[in-house]
Amino acid sequence: MVRGVLPLPQHRDLVRVVVWDGTAPTTSRAYDVPLLDPDGNDVPAAELVAAVRQLVRHSPGDRPPAPAGPRDGHGIPVVPVDTVRKILDAHPAALDLSDALYAAAAGIAPSRDTAGDTDAGTGSQDGLVLLGFLLLDKGRERARLYVTGGGLPGTVGLDVGLRDRHGAVISAITGLSAALPSLIADDQLSYNPSDETDPYCATVFDLTHW
Questions:
Q1: d(CA 175, CA 107)
Q2: How, if at all, do strands 14-19 and 29-34 pair?
Q3: Which single residue of 95, 142, 178, 204 has CA 20 to 30 Å from 185?
Q4: Higher-confidence residue: 138 or 141?
């Protein structure tokens, strides 16, 4: 599990991520992870998370670090960026379904309305609220997001895709996120019906094609 994410003032193109077993601080290990790709572009947040997963999976975590190896000011062993790059070259970071679920939830969860944007007397829509989610079917290609507010008739389920047509994990649902307020305001959700019923919501809509 992640114990810390630390800035490196002398190396603004790196971030130091500290992981441990959640019980013993002596199991801590820090990785200096690049924030830029080989072309000098920012590494997306989802890919940074995927990179840390690969580092934890493929580093010799069961072998104690060498006493003479680099450590930070807290005594935590540090895996330097050159070693990190070698590990990631051998085991490239890959997105998984946890990244897709996070992207779907983050895409649907709204930012808080600013004060004065709504007027209770005019029936203006409140913001959407994400209540929960569920990974569906054996193929694990879609999830159901449970949302309410925003003029919806109670709690509804929105089925969203987690993989593209090539089977790759989707790391963002920006198209659906941008269109959803209009779909609700213009009653367009009714054109995306689902035959499924769900005990956790009043209605289910199929948005997997977005």
A1: 9
A2: antiparallel
A3: 142
A4: 141
Phi-psi domain of 149 (left: phi exceeds 0; alpha: psi -120 through 50; beta: other): left
Q: Residue 50, SS3?
A: helix
- The two structure tokens encoding residue 119: 């007027």
Q: Lowest mean pLDDT: which of 1-5, 78-82, 102-106, 193-197?
A: 102-106
Cα gap 159→180, rounded to integer Å: 12
CB atoms within 10 A of CB 108: 21
Predicted structure pTM score:
0.62
- The answer for residues whose C-beta is within 8 angstroms of residue 81's C-beta and 6 or more apart is 11, 14, 32, 33, 34
Give start and end residues of each alpha helix (H) in the chain.
Answer: 45-58, 81-90, 97-108, 174-185
| Confidence at residue 65, expressed as pLDDT on a 0 to 100 scale | 55
Chain centroid offset of residue 194 CA:
26
